[in-house]
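Collaborator request, handled under Task 6.
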Amino acid sequence: MAITDYSIEAGRARTLRQQVHLNQLDYRRELSRLTSLGGTQREWARALGISQPSLSSALKTAGTVIAVRQGFSGADPYEVCQRYAVGQLTREQLIDELMRWDYVAPEKREHDYFDDLRFSTPGSFDDVGRAFNDRLLGGDLYDTILQAVDVLVITASRLRGERTSK
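Structure tokens returned to the collaborator:
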């Protein structure tokens, strides 16, 4: 009896699911950009080949989408990892962006009665950890990014005269 590793078999479907999500984000951001140029919803709906009520609904959702951070490929580290996973970024681009990201500092993290480590804080390095858990990054790449970010944090702390526990 053959044992099938479904996680390997599902790899392409996982990548396609990420691509669909990114396409939705890009579409919503583009709708926001287009409508900010002026014109009525009716005019834009006609130009897009959709109904005005469909555009109105899409714009409501688009209003909740966070803009891509200037100089980066995504609105948060997780989105940057998604773009790498679907082939929109090279390994070098991913590492560069995640090393330059201004992560949420630990003192700004959300705290919960039980354990703040059980909850992911958007904009923190938790996003990279979640990308690893979701198989957007391999273990070797995650370790490379973690080490690079750790070096930057330690260096910045030393430049500010802080003591590090490492």
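The cover message to the collaborator said: "The radius of gyration is 20 Å. The mean pLDDT is 86. Please let us know whether this matches your experimental observations."
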